[in-house]
Fold:
Amino acid sequence: MVAITLPDGSVRRYDKPVTGADVAADIGPGLAKAALAVKVNGDMKDLLLPLTEDVKLAIVTKKDPDALELLRHDAAHVLAEAVQELFPGTQVTIGPAIENGFYYDFARNEPFTLDDLPKIEAKMKEIVDRDEPIRREVWDRNDAIAHFKSIGELYKAELISGFPEHEPISIYRQGDKWLDLCRGPHLASTGKLGKAFKLTKVAGAYWRGDSNNAMLTRIYGTAWADEKQLAEYLTQIEEAEKRDHRRLGREMDLFHLQEEAQGAVFWHPKGWTLYRTLQNYIRRRLEGAGYVEVNTPMLMDKVLWEKSGHWEKFREGMFISESEERTLAVKPMNCPGHVQIYNQGIKSYRDLPLRIAEFGCCHRNEPSGALHGLMRVRAFVQDDAHIFCTEDQVKSETKAFIDLLRVVYADLGFTEIRVKFSDRPVKRAGSDETWDKAEAALRDATDAAGLEWTLNPGEGAFYGPKLEFVLRDAIGRDWQCGTLQADFVLPERLEANYIGEDGAKHRPVMLHRAIFGSMERFIGILVENYAGKFPLWLTPLQAVVCTITEEANDYAAEVAATLRANGLRVETDLRNEKINYKVREHSLAKVPVLVVVGKKEAETRGVALRRLGGANQEILALDEATDRLAKEAAVPGTF
RNA sequence: GCCGACGUAGCUCAGGGGUAGAGCAACUGAUUCGUAAUCAGUAGGUCCGCGGUUCAAUUCCGCGCGUCGGCACCA
Structure:
């Protein structure tokens, strides 16, 4: 006797084992048709899994949000079957579901090209039409290895060899000819997948994510529950591409890049205004939070980097210069410089915490393939700071930092913050005891600040664990922006100390921290998040005074001067063009406020304000408009 | 760095073995106009670079550089 409890609490009893498919059919033919899989006691399982004991069962259909992952995983398998049918001799490796879609990695001497995708897609649809049954089988480990070796699937054989002994090897048979190693679960047949999928790109990827291994060809696709969702997703991607900071950077005349300075930014006047506005803003926030600002040399003798450990670990990524007898390195980071400032004179526990900030211009010779617009560059400015404190102060300093970061991110439109906690990497400096202490201190402090985080195992800096504050760009790529790293190693290596209450020397802890990460990257993220329509305080050009006729030219100049005298960034547009033309042009340039003046305004000393995206205008006296705009443009954190 | 695609005017792109074309932008002139494109005219190119094949290469081939999409890396 098997008792199946359904989500509504009702219980169905069967006198022999049943499958989810049986239960669905029992409930109704509509559900039987719609059923994709089941959740057994909350876990996603195959529809055809025999249920031999009492369970809680939910039938999963396309309406279930969890069904998407299942569909995507099946899409990957259908992709693999299609590829092997079209290109015999191609080896399959792995093919998981990912956010918005799926991929499958193939090994083949001849790589696929973009032109192959439509053919493969058509074949996938054919396989869906065939509605091949998908059945789970459990194989003996050695049999499975032998089988995959015999058909030339060496990667699959390698995968199975890596599984723990005695682990059951589950194989999914798709139709009568094709099968694949897979943990499952899967749909009951290929027809259930539907056709709301699309192959999107071809790319190289290393076997098992290791650059020492062979390069495989990865085919990416997106898959959805229905055509409407698919179309929406594709439109959304298209829209997102219009917000790409590289595109807006050019359209809005913010910056450019060119090959003679690969990975370094030429900031144009508007972009530099944005940059300075952001920098002045964060500077005030730092001053308010008790930081002192310094500036340290760009070129320093390599002995300093040998001492810190950076030479050993990052030499390849450093730009070097020779001078007389010395080897100098262009600084890739600011920490050692800050320790030099800290080490001037004797520090007392009364001096701590000492928060040393710098807008430090750093250079790193990033691999060419890593460069990406403003997001990943070779020359960048960190909003860097190092907090020298006692071990007892780690918790309160961490909390203060997180509070500050939250305020700044909120000011810039980021309220949901994703945080990763990265612990000790394989290659690291410092003893295990030191790492235990550093990890515990950072984790406790983070929890005390009430921050939700996910673990990023082994991804910490070589000298300490780190918190990463991750922001997402328009296309869905994640970038680390803010960071906080607890470091018990560098103070030791660079011999920082302070005199404690007990009169003895102690090591301070160093907290490395940044809120933006790099000015460049953060501006890139800001451009994409605001789609170039920055808040008034931040936008480079806040208002354009547009004339309707020549008669208003003098008055327009006076209006602009008044606005500028009140701290606003304003230009005039006195060109002999129709007002429609001017409105269109400045709207496309994303200027938030247009101040329109014609004969009427000149006579009454008024202005017509038009907001970006707004349909109508507001007629105000010049004084009132100035007052209002000045207030609206106030930088957050100022009074 | 690795795999793949791409590289033609400021931008978006077309073309093609016989030294290049459109739209928008730019420039000049006319128009003085009330809230998302006024009209007319002009100018603009080592077709990424270097080699090779050819009577002839921007076009075909090779190499290099760069960009883009991923992977790897990211102090």
About this structure: DSSP finds 20 helices and 35 strands in chain A. Chain A has four domains: 2-60, 67-240, 287-530, 543-632.
